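Lab manual, section 2.4: Encoding a predicted structure.

Procedure: take the sequence of the chain (328 residues), apply the prediction step described in section 2.3, and record the output as structure tokens. A sample record is shown.
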Amino acid sequence: MKDVFVALSGGADSAYAVLKLKKEGYNVIGAFMDLGLGYEALDRAKLAAFRLGIPLHILRLKEEFEELVVKYFIEEYLKGKTPNPCAICNRKVKFGVLREQLKGLGVELFATGHYACLKNLILAKGKDETKDQSYFLSLVPKEGFSNVLFPLCAEEKRKVEERIREIVPSKESQEICFLKGKSYQDFLLERIGERPGRFVDTSGKVLGNHKGHFLFTIGQRRGLGISLGRPLYVVDILANENLVVLGDEQELYKSAMQVAHINWFIYENRPFRAEVKIRRQHTPQKATVHPDGLVVFDTPQRAITPGQIACFYRGNLVAGAGIIEKAT
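Recorded output:
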């Protein structure tokens, strides 16, 4: 019987991963990441482990999480970007620090409740595309998936919740756990404080004042406090000058972008065709991807946002992913 650690959050998905692996004959051990965010999640994980009949190993990762994820989140906003902390957490904490600590306990196999698949260490979409999480895992290096199991690869979210309801009440996790229900603006104001700056239009004309460029993201319309008789959108953020540039909606559409820090699963030294996803709720769009990270879309895309993840799909497989540097 093989031992396997399962990242147990206390939610339905990770609990079902445990159930499925037990049925397949694995000796399952729960692993909970204590990120210093309160006791509610830990209590749910303890209850789930008890009801599932498995031991629970608790790893204190508060300092690592703060340094690798929260600090990154704040710094990226200060640079005028809009980060994806969940993708960074998967790369650096869950499949990084946590995985290494669990290996140190002598167990190689590791599983999570992600809706994603692996095909010869190449990341692929989960069967339930409405809940597919390959996008959030796409920055994890290929070697990071060695000895990893995704029991929910071929599962549907609805059926998982139905089967696990008696053990773990269904509860969706917060989009960004460390915000604890706050808006990202309130969180950043608590950490950074106000840094008053200007709204300008694309010609440089001053339109008004704001409390900090880091409180805005590309494509934003609401919460600007500016009224010129027509809809205005954030079309650019000039972090070094603390300026937020406003414009018309058509100015949000761009045909190309530069992507940096690419994590390749299938590398090609020439341009290739792919479907590219540029944010969590974005439908992947046809594009040509160049080896240097230049991506040219067949049709212009709205609000290409620096700091977000760009994921390149070839069919169901993830060819690679990186962080958007700029729209071009």
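Check your result against the sample. The longest strand covers residues 253-264.
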